[in-house]
Amino acid sequence: MSASYPATRLRRTRASAWSRALHRENLLTPADLIWPLFVTEGTGTEEPIGSLPGVSRWSVDLMAPRAKEAMALGIPCLALFPNTQAQRRSDDGREALNPDNLMCRAIRAIRDACGEGIGVLTDVALDPYTSHGQDGLVDPAGYVLNDATVEVLVGQSLNQAAAGADVIAPSDMMDGRISAIRAALEGDGHVNVQIMSYAAKYASAFYGPFRDAVGSSGLLKGDKKTYQMDPANGEEALREVAMDIAEGADSVMVKPGLPYLDIVRRVKERFEVPVFAYQVSGEYAMIEHAAAAGAGERDALVLETLLAFKRAGCSGVLTYHAAHAARLLGA
Ligand code: PBG
Questions:
Q1: Which residue is catalytic, options 68, 224, 225, 255?
Q2: Taking the domain 27-217+233-330, which CATH number applies?
Q3: Domain spans, the chain
Q4: Among 201, 224, 268, 310, which one carries the catalytic annotation?
Q5: Could you report the per-residue pLDDT of 211-261, keeping only the tens digit for each?
Q6: What is the full DSSP assignment across 219-249?
Q7: Catalytic residue at 255?
Q8: pTM of the predicted model over 0.85
Q9: Which residue in 155, 176, 205, 230 has its CB near the most CB atoms, within 10 A?
Q10: Residue 201 catalytic?
Q11: Cα–Cα distance between 267 and 248 in angstroms, integer?
Q12: Neighbouring C-alpha atoms within 13 Å toward the C-beta of 272
C-alpha cells in the first residue's frame, strides 16, 4: 500500500544549492545597474546628503574617480544630476543652457578620464536650475507651460549632447518633448545619442531626499501633479509609453520603482521595448532606515529589491545602491 504523496513536489528542486542555482530564472549582475551621481561646485568636495545616508554630492574633479570605480565594478552607465548654486537659478532655468554648467563640466571630466568606457546619462528637466523648483517654465499662476518648456528642454538636450552625453533622459513629463528632442539631436548630427524617456513618471511622495540632493526642496511651492502622473493610473502609463516610443525614444523608464512593478510588467508585455526603472531616493532611504533600525539585513534587502526589477521585466535599474550592489555581486 503506497502512502499518498503530492502529484509533484516543488520543493524537490529547491532542496540543494546547486539545484536552486540551476533553476534560477533571473540573474542580477552589475551590468544591470545605472548609478545616479550628484555633482556640486568646489574642488575635492564631498558633501554627504543627510536624507540619503551613504550618498554624497561630489565636485567635478571627483567625478572621474567615481566613473573609474563604476567601470572597475562593471557598472555600464552613470546618471548625473547637478546641485546648481542658488545664484545660478532663475525663473527660466537658463543655466541649463550654459555650456559650462556643472552638468556639462561633469560630462567632460568623465569623458576625458574614461573615453567610451562608460555611458553617461543626463537628466533633462529644469528643476535643478529654476528658482521655483518646478521642472519647466511657469505662468503667473504657477502653471507649468508645456510647449515653451519643451523649447528649453531641446536646448538643454543639445547642450548636454555637445558636452558628450550618451543618453538623454527627459524626466520633465512635458507632452511632445521626445519628438522635439529627437529631431534636434538628428539635426545636430547626434544620431547615436540615445533617448531614455522617463515615460511613466508618477507624482510620488518618494522623491523627497532627491529634492534635498539637488537643492530644490526648499524652493518648490506646491506639487508636480499637473505634469507627473496620478499614482492611481495604469492605463495612462501605457499611453505615455506608446507616445514616447512613437516619438523616437530608444528605451523607457518607469519611476518610482518598487511600488510600480505592475507598470513595468504591463509596459514590457505590451511593447517589448527596453524598460528601465528608477529605484528612487525615498525607496533607497526606506531600505537604509529599515536596515539601521534592525528591521532587515541591508545587503539582502538591496539584492532582493534589485532582483525584483529583473523579474518584473527591467533591462536595468537606476539605483543609489549601484556601487554597493555591484560590490556584493562581484564578491
Ligand atoms: C526631476 C527629477 C526627480 C527625480 C529625478 N528627476 C524629482 C522630481 O520629479 O521632483 C527623482 C529621483 C529620486 O527621487 O531619486 N526632474
A1: 255
A2: 3.20.20.70
A3: 27-217+233-330
A4: 201
A5: 999 988 889 988 999 999 999 999 999 999 999 999 999 999 999 999 999
A6: T--S-STTTSBPTT-SHHHHHHHHHHHHTT-
A7: yes
A8: yes
A9: 155
A10: yes
A11: 16
A12: 0
